[in-house]
Amino acid sequence: MMNPSDPLLSVRDLSVTFANDAGTLTAVDGLGFSVAPGECLAIVGESGSGKSVTAMSILGLTRFNGGTLTSGAIRFRRRNGETLDLARADEPTLRTVRGNEIAMIFQEPMTALNPVYPIGEQIAEAIRAHRPVSREAANAEALALIEKVRIPEPERRFGQYPHELSGGMRQRIVIAMALACRPSLLIADEPTTALDVTIQAQILYLVRSLARGNGMAMLFITHDMGVVAEIADRVLVMRHGRKVEEAAVGPFFSAPEESYSQALLAAVPRLGSAPAPETVPQTPTPLLEVRNLVTRFPVRRGILGRHVANVHAVEDVSLTISRGETLALVGESGCGKSTTGRSIVRLVDPLSGSVALEGEDVLGLDEARLRRRRRDMQIIFQDPYAALDPRQTAFEQIADPMLIHGMERGSALRDRVVSLLRRVGLGEEHMSRYPHEFSGGQRQRLCIARALGLSPKLIVADEAVSALDVSIQKQVVELLQQLQAELGISYLFISHDMGVVERMSHRVAVMYMGRVVEIGPRASVFGNPRHPYTRALLAAVPTPDPANRRREAPPVVALRSPIHPIGYAAPAARYDDFGDGHLVLAS
Predict the structure, then answer these.
(1) Per the database record, which ranges form the ABC transporter domain (predicted)?
(2) How far apart are CA 512 and CA 559, in angstroms?
(3) 548 lies in a domain?
(4) Could you tell me whether strands 185-189 and 288-301 are parallel, antiparallel, or unpaired per DSSP bridges?
(5) Higher model confidence: residue 193 or residue 580?
(6) CB 156, CB 209: distance < 8 Å
(7) Does pTM top 0.85 for this prediction?
(8) Each residue's pLDDT tens digit, 312-344
(9) What is the distance between the alpha carbons of residues 437 and 158, in angstroms, rounded to a whole number?
(10) CB-CB contact of 33 with 11 (8 Å)
(11) What is the three-class DSSP state of 6?
(12) How many domains are contained in the chain?
């Protein structure tokens, strides 16, 4: 039996290895730490540093993807007061712990959700699996959890499937499932990566409040130093599988001891610190011109799938992007950002409006011409795991588009792939690896390298750096800017990270409920926001300073339903002009 003052979780001398073609890879090397009840320990470090492997080892999950725990003890104090060494527990025992006493939120929500079951049923099943409650009680609690993580229209969402939700909404569902059984320890692996800043602020406050109220401990893995400052009590820095530094959150941010920790903090984007971008000359004919774009999705009900309403995903959106310019598109999860990007490159067919690339009507192209035109407009998706073919190596993923478009062959193709990998922080040794052998951040870098391979004129970057830790994120942003300066590439940069947006963009467009509510030069939008929603977005950004930690619940941004009856005509968008291209939707 352990004393009440003992740690809830104590990890000692943990080492985890993986076998590969080159021999044995040590992912975690002699790691030790502890977490007390009600305490939040943040684990930070570069992508591939061993953070996620550490988290999965606690629940015995590494054994399912080839990992071997070669040494160490993972002592966990159970609810009944007994101590269990998770490193030596058998699978039946671990099943009684997983989800019930220790819950985990994974980085990529689609890997944690079953695509063939409605999300409400999945939450209710998690509750019934660990607690003796009726189906009706479990359903009612699941509905309450969906509402608690602030998903609009919880009754309708209850019966929807994962593919029908945005990335941010899926992540909120995963968080709801993790909280369903009120665990003693919550392991959160990049839980707010897919969330926009307003929802992130709500979720962080919610999780922190629940942890304090229930004495729940947290192991919080993140690359967002603003999140660390907002939620952590202590910080553990990892590199190459080893502990670099461990300190209380205040001293860590004010005076980190190790040079690696100092470099991590120096890479953090801070609002107001980005230098003013060079002005991009506005040419008479922009590279991309979008006018009055409307995209809707049918809502079908009943056994026969009768079309009863429409989701107004994108409503009367107009924007332009010049050659060599970056327009950032920001807003709430589910506001229509990703659908706007997909409509522009015709991965989704708009209902009406026009999209012109170099003056050519993209919406009017036939399949053959569109296939050739897509070389000029590439997209980097939000979920790197879903965007990569699990059967192809990294070399094949990057080389295939170039082969399809007849760009390179033989040794020249190999040299081009190696060059692209190096430009995004990977190396020649990664060419033979498959997607599952990369960390989440490394997979996203692979997607970026593939998009750059065709030397496109326009890249739609849909949360392209959201999965990257701060040091790699800074490198990739600088890479994108360098490519822009050298090649004149334009970006539609879709992101919820306002610090990265400020660093990356020339102009900013803010979306809310399918509409652009504010658009203008970055300095004007960030320095003098005019629309209430823009002000709420900026106010929700966490600052990398524990002294500025949020003490009260963040304001809730009112959400309206985007679903309207068939035949509903939305009012035309009218904008007030505040000069220099700064437009704000008239109320």
Answers:
(1) 11-265, 288-538
(2) 9
(3) no
(4) unpaired
(5) 580
(6) no
(7) no
(8) 999 999 999 999 999 999 987 778 899 999 999
(9) 34
(10) yes
(11) coil
(12) 1
Strand ranges, E, within 467-524: 490-494, 507-512, 515-521
Which amino acid makes up residue 224? D
The reported pLDDT for the residue numbered 87 is 94
Q: Which residue intervals of 305-350 are DSSP H helices?
A: 337-344
Q: How many CB atoms lie within 10 A of CB 333?
A: 23
DSSP-assigned letters across all residues of 534-576: HHHHHHTPPPS-GGG---SPPPPPP----EEETT--PPPP-EE
Query: Which among 546, 551, 556 is positioned nearest to 226, based on CA atoms?
Result: 546
Token reading at 546: 């524990």
Q: Which of 504, 496, 501, 407 is nearest to 450 (CA)?
A: 407
CATH number for the domain harbouring residue 160: 3.40.50.300
Residue pair 533/557 in contact (Cβ under 8 Å)? The answer is yes
Write the CB contacts of 164 (distance below 8 Å, at least 6 apart in sequence).
none
Query: Is residue 219, in this structure, part of any structural domain at all?
Result: yes
In a domain, 118, yes or no: yes
Distances in Å between the Cα of 79 and the Cα atoms of 34, 102, 277, 312, 436 are: 17, 11, 55, 48, 35
pLDDT in tens, 391-446: 999 999 999 999 888 877 788 899 999 999 998 888 899 999 999 888 777 888 89
Q: How far apart are CA 252 and CA 233, in angstroms?
A: 10
